[in-house]
């Protein structure tokens, strides 16, 4: 979440999936290339060769989708203008599909009146292996005019909440609603901020490895059980480092979303770093002065 002087923005859910498509894509690219080599120099050209060319194009699209574009498609809540701005990536022109990994993707910003926005909590099940997991997300429903039943857009706001947490999206919406209605602050000390991961080389090469890399000290303090699990996870280090490296390259090649000048003028200064937020909003506790406070006597 980015905090501005008069607004806040949330990243989309898919920004957390960066790197996975290109990881699968490169495996497919090398497999298809090997198949084409066998077709041309060993078995001979056949209908299988055409299928291999088609698969190669699909796998190249996976890599391009992951490496070309924007790091996120955020939603910005603009309190002074009472607008909701949605950043959308339009991708590359069709003639650049599958080969141009350094292209300049197109984008647009869709703006909607706050009075046309309502919210709902969407629950769904994710299957990871043999264990299903319930998650919930905050989704905005945007109508063509205030009070109209005609829906023109649905937009997810921020990462999902896991383990069946239904209250998280409701609390997020209430926080946004109070800010947009002018009865709540832009930022409160207890509000968590999404932190992107795998954006540095050290983080990328040690992703999903609790005992090595940045931040590993906290896991070493958890005792022998964590040491055992962390040691077992080292078996998968080549795979996790490969996925992490694709995530790192994707982060470096993708562009940072930029809002138009008129939107930034309305939202004000920002986005603020954690240090600036602490300074501007006095999140740090004041230092003690060594003087005792005396209560004033009051007459009833």
**What is the distance, rounded to the nearest whole angstrom, between the alpha carbons of the first and last residues?**
47 Å
Whole-number radius of gyration?
24 Å
Strand content: 15-25%
Query: Total helix count?
Result: 9
Largest sheet: 5 strands, antiparallel
User: What is the H-and-E element order?
Assistant: EEHHEEEEEEHHHHHHH
Our count of domains comes out at 1
Strand segment count: 8
From the spread of the alpha carbons, the general shape counts as globular
- Structural class from helices and strands? alpha+beta
Mean pLDDT: 85
- Spatially, the strands of the biggest sheet line up as 1-2-3-4-5
Helical proportion, percent range: 25-40%
Give start-end ranges of low-pLDDT stretches.
Answer: 283-300
